């Protein structure tokens, strides 16, 4: 049986989802009410009354869900999975799977990660100003926790995720970040 899956970060990218979950099907876009996109180095949501976040909706099967559990680091506690959100889809009220970060720190994403998310926003025809605002707020409110600091140490070793996303509106390009 298929489930609904809510994507708000890099899993908006149809290319990434084809690799991770080859049988997942994109269903469309919607605004998740009372939620704000935040970055803890990676995408997450804060549930804030009156806010909203653009999301993509996918249909996934059990194999896709297992692949997402691995990709999101469920077994190591990086994210947790919730099925508390109920959506109306195809004339029925249905629970949807969403992954949320087990972290409270705030930190900008890497340039490559932001590029993948931006492609996902384009794939689903979402308003990129929400993404830009979240990246800008991550720069303004940087407060890395231990998990973010450890991830940045690992990222600096490689080339792909070494640079942080530029501050929206900046002409500096990707910044090395601390």
Plain-language structure description:
The protein has 178 residues and is α+β, with helices and mostly antiparallel strands. The chain has a single domain, classed as Roll (Hypothetical upf0131 protein ytfp). The strands form 2 sheets. A 5-stranded mixed beta sheet has the order 2-5-1-7-6. The protein has a two-stranded antiparallel sheet with strand order 3-4. The termini are far apart. The C terminus is likely disordered.
Strand-helix topology:
Blueprint: E1 3-7, H1 14-20, E2 25-33, E3 36-39, E4 43-46, E5 52-60, H2 62-71, E6 79-89, E7 92-101, H3 111-123, H4 129-140, H5 146-157
Parallel strand pairs: 1-7
Antiparallel strand pairs: 1-5, 2-5, 3-4, 6-7
Distance between the terminal alpha carbons, to the nearest Å? Answer: 44 Å
Major β-sheet annotation? 5 strands, mixed
> By CATH's scheme, which homologous superfamily applies?
Gamma-glutamyl cyclotransferase-like
SS element count, helices: 5
**Structural class computed from helices and strand pairing:** alpha+beta
Q: What is the arithmetic mean of pLDDT?
A: 92
């Amino acid at each position: 049986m298929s489930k609904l899956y809510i994507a708000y970060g890099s899993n908006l990218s149809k290319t990434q989802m084809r690799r991770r979950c080859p049988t997942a099907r994109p269903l469309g876009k919607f605004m998740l009410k009372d939620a704000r996109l935040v970055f803890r180095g990676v995408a997450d949501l804060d549930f804030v009354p009156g806010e909203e976040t653009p999301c993509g909706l996918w249909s996934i099967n059990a194999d896709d869900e297992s692949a997402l559990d691995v990709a999101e680091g469920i077994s190591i506690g990086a994210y947790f999975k919730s099925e508390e959100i109920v959506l109306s889809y195809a004339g029925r009220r249905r629970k949807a799977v969403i992954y949320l970060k087990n972290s409270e720190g705030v930190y900008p994403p890497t340039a490559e990660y932001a590029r993948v998310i931006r492609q996902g926003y384009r794939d689903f025809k979402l308003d990129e100003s929400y993404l830009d605002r979240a990246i800008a707020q991550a720069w303004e409110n940087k407060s890395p926790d231990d998990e973010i600091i450890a991830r940045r140490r690992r990222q600096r070793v490689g080339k792909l995720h070494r640079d942080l996303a530029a501050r929206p509106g900046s002409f500096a390009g990707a910044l090395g970040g601390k």
